[in-house]
Amino acid sequence: LLRQILDQWFESEPLKATLATDAVIGAMASPHTPGSGYVLLHHVMGELEGRRGAWGYVAGGMGALSQAIASAAAAQGAHIFTEKAVCHVLLGREGRAQGVVLQDGTEVRSKLVLSNASPQITFLELTPQEQLPKDFVQRILQVDTRSPVTKINVAVDRLPSFLAAPNPRDGHALPHHQCSIHLNCEGTHLLHQAFTEATHGHPSSRPMIELCIPSVLDPELAPRGCHVVSLFTQYTPSKLAGGQPWDERARNAYADTVFDCIEAYAPGFKASIIGRDILTPPDLERIFGLPGGNIFHGGMSLDQLYFARPVPSYSGYRSPVPGLYLCGSGAHPGGGVMGAAGRNAAQVALEDFRHL
Question: Could you tell me which residue ranges the Amine oxidase domain spans (predicted)?
């Protein structure tokens, strides 16, 4: 258990709770859930520009990262099609992947097909079911995709001023404005409490909040004097108790709860809001194709990692369909902005390509 690991190393409860957030981030789990310690390890392994365990902002927003990858691919001769939805994987007579068919009927032929969509979309929606073993399909259906995440993007007309470290009169950003700010994390019992509410179908009354202000480091994201605030919050269940829908009323009610919590730490925050965008688990699924709203394409629990990701016998990026590979977060080693699954899948695909 994560709680036991933290107790061995630290005495400060706020510090332990803050570290514990990375053990439950994106997971329908609490610090008391077996295996949560691995999720913490997953988020602190690796490095950024030589600094172990470091994270960073992408200049220009996360879309800039996609553009950089696209530019690198185009420089090597890749052709990129956007806003061209794939209808299904095109198979040859021998059941081998030969490309994809777009929704407008266009066939894009290829000797190999790599999918960074979730395993559920790749194999349950885009691949002809008669080409897949029944036990494989059943395994994919059983993947735990529960998500506790509601993402809220906020536009504000001034920097938040926290009671613990008030802003200077000149309005300049302080060091904490350039980092992740964790709220409602004074104790691991608060995280467990928030998790328990969600397991009963209720959004947390005191949600875990990770607050970032990327416009402090990247001024081009907002007009002068204004800022964008990214709120990564949990726990919110994908399905509400009593069959209640995640409608506009429910979205706004939860957002108001989050804003009330921030207001307690930074009075005046609510008055500074000039725009907000609320993405609940069903919204994340509908807009981004994340099953259950899960940002990792499936839970990062011990039974869904390593040789079992996405399912046993198919953890090496290949699929039951020859020529079709899985290269997204649903493959080993899982989620996170690191590109490891894509790099590994590309190596496997290139090895197979050389033998065609």
Answer: 35-164
Contact 25, 232 (CB under 8 A): yes
Phi, psi dihedral angles at 340 (to 5 degrees): -65, -45
**Helix pair angle (36-44, 13-24), 10° resolution:** 90
What is the Cα 27 distance to its own chain's centre? 10
CB atoms within 10 A of CB 232: 18
The string of pLDDT tens digits covering residues 68-80 is: 999 999 999 999 9
Task: Return the structure tokens found at 322.
Answer: 């020859």
Rg value, the chain, Cα = 22
**Parallel, antiparallel or unpaired: strands 181-183 and 208-212:** antiparallel
Q: In the chain, what is the straight-line distance between the N-terminal and C-terminal CA atoms, in Å?
A: 47
Q: What is the pLDDT of residues 135-162, one digit of tens each?
A: 999 999 999 999 999 999 999 999 999 9
CB 218 within 8 A of CB 60: yes
Extents of the domains making up the chain: 2-57+148-288, 91-144+291-354
